[in-house]
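Backbones bend. We report:
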Amino acid sequence: MVWMASLAMIASLMSTATARAEISGQQRAQAAGRAMLGAPAPRLVLTTIDGDAIDLGGLYGKKAVYLKFWATWCVPCRQQMPHFEHVYETAGPNMAVIAIDVGFNDSIQAIRDYRKKMGITMPIVFDDGRLGTAFHVRVTPTHVIIGRDGRIRYIGHLADDALDAALVAARSPDAAGDAPRSAAAEASEKRDPSPIGVGDRLPPWSLRTLDGERFELHQSGVQPQLTALVFLSPWCESYLATTRPEVAAGCRDARKQIGALGADPHIRWVGIASGLWANRDDLRKYRAHYRVNIPLTLDESGMEFRAFRVNDVPTIFIADGTGKILRRLDGDAMRDADGLRKAIDGGAEGGT
């Protein structure tokens, strides 16, 4: 029948689209983690949402470690959760299995609700961005498998035969032993710098925009302007429309307000996009689709998000002409149609 043929065609197209998304995720995860394969894993101490401490360095040489970076709003993460829980339940004494929520537009309460709903029993850590940065996480989910020797053996996105084979190989006696420390691992374990927030000065950074220009956070002109840093994600409005509609609405409202104010000559704007599920091409498509009229830069490593302690988008910082940060606004603060304008006007008055 015609309608059955139509349904079959739609199903085929959906399957193809899903496969393309999976391939893209796998490629992104593997490309980001390729340089880490075979290297000693960072020796970090994790704290679960229940307050328990897990010393990764103490596990190396004794057990294999399986870290899965995920989020409650992530559709493929949800699809893979039964596989993940099964691995945890059958891991045995030679493997530690730990769930790492990436902490991006998520919350501990949302994790607890999801854990209860799904009957998850494994330890769960809520990342503040430090772990994602240390393990070069670019997509959700990202699977990181560390051998018993403390070396990173596998990084990927799919729950497939390759992942299962890596899980088996990581537990073998041949993968045991103490891993030497590396400069990269030691650097990732250093304590975070002091957070940048309201009352602090903007750091002396030079950001490269999509157009190849430099955006200097420190101003050198004779007529300094307000500076607005907009932390964003190019997929917030579209992808989160079904899984986190309130967050998607906040991203949309902020973008519209910024669009209306972007031409104000008294304000310097720059959009800083998260590198999670985004590259420069994705950011260009976002700019073109929504006709974004402010300079955009990609925080591929997560350094800018970490320094400003941003885990949710949209988040905006407003600094005066001297670089002093006057305001920090999140999505809720901009639900008011004039919320950003009021904050900017308040900043202008406070900076005079």
Q: What stands out?
A: The mean pLDDT is 87. Residues 67 and 98 are 5 Å apart (CA to CA).
